[in-house]
Amino acid sequence: MARKSRHSFSLSLSPARFSSLLLFLLLSIPRASAGGHDYGDALRKSILFFEGQRSGRLPPDQRLRWRRDSALHDGASAGVDLTGGYYDAGDNIKFGFPMAFTTTLLSWSVIDFGRNMGGELNNAVKAVKWGTDYLLKATKDVPNALYVQVGDAYSDHNCWERPEDMDTLRTVYKIDRFHPGSDVAGETAAALAAASIVFRYRDPPYSRLLLDRAIKVFDFADRHRGAYSSSLRSAVCPFYCDVNGYQDELLWGAAWLHKASRRREYREYIVRNEVVLRAGDTINEFGWDNKHAGINVLISKEVLMGKANDLVAFKRNADGFICSVLPGISNPQIQYSPGGLLFKAGSCNMQHVTSLSFLLLAYSNYLSHANHAVPCGGSYATPALLKRLAKRQVDYILGDNPLSMSYMVGYGARYPQRIHHRASSLPSVAAHPAHISCKAGSRYYLSPNPNPNLLVGAVVGGPNSSDAFPDSRPFFQESEPTTYVNAPLVGLLAYFWAHP
Questions:
Q1: 480 is catalytic
Q2: What is the domain range of residue 256?
Q3: Disulfide: which of 100, 196, 212, 334 matches 191 by Cβ 3.0-4.6 Å?
Q4: Is residue 8 part of a domain?
């Protein structure tokens, strides 16, 4: 169980006193940097990171030039084209579940904060499309099959080699009506639906294709219910095993389909299945495995606009989420490090930091437009306070922390040098044209030297609950970047660039 925050106080305060005291706690946490941050530069780099994670044939406008084409025969063993998409982290597997979540959050970032992205909006949209182009390939055979993974994780993790050299098994894994996977299918439907909003006016035919495919994938997910980690356990566990169940992904997919299509059937689905699919569970969890906090915040926007009185339970849950993450309130699941970083037990803490901070910011905007605040134990948390907490987390990532270290590679004067990432840590093809075999890469993995290739914009798993960070490849929980850490950060950085 996570330790309680070192700050604690009674909630029996006036609203003004509560807000001012909480703000004092946020501001009084020690900071290493007195100056402001270049959020525009950080935004550009956070999007550039996705180019370093690309699989397949790279386009002419590829900016991270040390990467080359890779995995050009993915899907061939199954008679399908599954080239493209993203490697999720520092390995060379294409896991469909986190890739779909990444695409959903990139899309949400563009939908809510695209107007704040300036000249980076086009690059953000390209990052979304690199994900959706692959997801369209993976769902082409729905309802007969949905391809959810390319590559054998065990053989891949037994090697340390560049994606360009990859000679491990590229096994194709799928779900179908006899081997269901409502979790990964529901998330894929959400990704396609969310992206259809991104392209609604930019590319209407493509947007219609995405929405049509989202509808089919969601129908498949709902008709053939089950967890993909049961159907494909030996392939996906313990890597992206869905321990939370598939129910939240069904609600999540329906919520995005309603937002994208405005079809009443999806709203009725949400109302009808709210209790059955446990909408109120784990209100402060949000990530590739657990969508509950995201569902509640997403649906609450319509409640706050006065358009969905039948969905008020979701707003109550969203309010509960807000109260549960405020520092100074005793909560068994949330704590803050001495330096002020939100911390949840488990691997890759930064995924919680960026995703929960994104929800804080999104909900604060929804509340602002409705002129609302969140009641917490007889007091209120204002939208301004939520923005301040989200900004504090972003600033910690960028260097306002006890180590004066940016946890984004390439940003600031000091950042991680030895990230757990195969392509970054091995010599590039340009520097070392000869093939580097499976075990030959081990000496680079164990080397104390900095990575030769800068994976610009990569945000690593981050420090522990005491603000300590080893900067060592074997400490993968702290030093490995992932696409789903960066995806919500894109929206956060865009907003704070426009509202420093």
A1: yes
A2: 15-498
A3: 100
A4: no
